[in-house]
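Archive entry: two folds, one per protein. Generate the first.
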Amino acid sequence: MGKQLKFWFLATLTTLMVLAGSILQMGEPLMATQTFSDIAIADQLYIQYPDIPRAPEANTTLLSRFIDYHLNTQARPAHYHLDWELSMADYLDAAYGNRAQQSSTVAYTDKQTMKDLSRQQRHDLVRSLEQRFAQ
């Protein structure tokens, strides 16, 4: 009886440790998958920066797609300025990971629209995104 009790105790403890590790490891991406808040933040930014084109496609806008790219595709935290800068650089230069399912015209339009913004506009946008998610 003692060996069986020790086995079940160790098996239960191991299972709990594995589950706790999985939850801790996936904590940030799970918090980042809030599409409703992404769209709401994008809409707030369009009010703040009316000169940024919306480039709508399938119930999304340029900024909501950029926020999705940052949080879900790149799985970067939302409250660090440097991470937003890295995502902006990736968004302008890199091929898009999960954007293969979208038409290449949309990806090209997003990239071109972001490139058409001035450097100061992109910097202000990144700063505003960081501030909105820090609230």
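Generate the second and append.
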Amino acid sequence: MQFDDPAGLSRVCAERLGEKTGRQFAAMARRGFRLVQSTGSVQATGRCRLGGPALLEPETPWPEHSGVPLSLHAVLDTDALAAWLGDELPIRPGLLNFFYLDPDLPYEEYRKLDMYGAGVCRVIPADPARAVETTAPEPARSYPAMPVHAAEVTMLPDCWDVEDTDLEFDREQHWGAPSLILSEMGDLDGNTAGSHCAFGWPDTSHTLQVSSRDDDGSAVHLLQLAEDTELGWGWGDAGTLYFTIPVKALATGDFREAVAQVLCG
């Protein structure tokens, strides 16, 4: 569920869930962005873009998985995003390059790779002052460069990201907190499948690692990339690619801990 106005988010939660439960649900909101193609009237946000060459520091090697180069899918300019994210971005990593193993590699290369292994993705930060455009080596694909505008939104979690301990609710009327959200907030569909988003809450019409909790809290959502015919990428039947990172790893700037997951409809 995405809101352009945080005050409107709080009002809707209180109206539908009651003052106390609504306040609890509104407290789960995260700041994020819708990534939309920039046009003449909508300027790109910093150096944010989908596709195109990577923006890497000169000495940074191109990431590989078992000797096969990954493909660059997006660059986020966190300097341009930091003011809106505030404390949700505890560090300023500069440019973030998002790589993933291209599923359209030639079969003889593709068949020997573990598509579920840790090496299928990389998120590589770069100093904006030192970063240079770096072209993908073969056989990695080079997608068209699409500058994007990061539209500021406040996001509420999908019902399946809410646990029973997050909210107070009538347990005789609802089997769990997801039932309450489905019942009272259902027409404000949290499913953002089919769109590109950064930070905030992802589309979680599926179970995603960002939903998992432990003593350190949940993972942080970095990027959601939907199928895009203009860019020429896709991941199975209505597939969406998600990048997440553990809370501690983000706080220390250790993007080696970032993971990617493809989920299909």
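Annotation attached to the second fold: The mean pLDDT is 85. The chain has one domain: 2-188.
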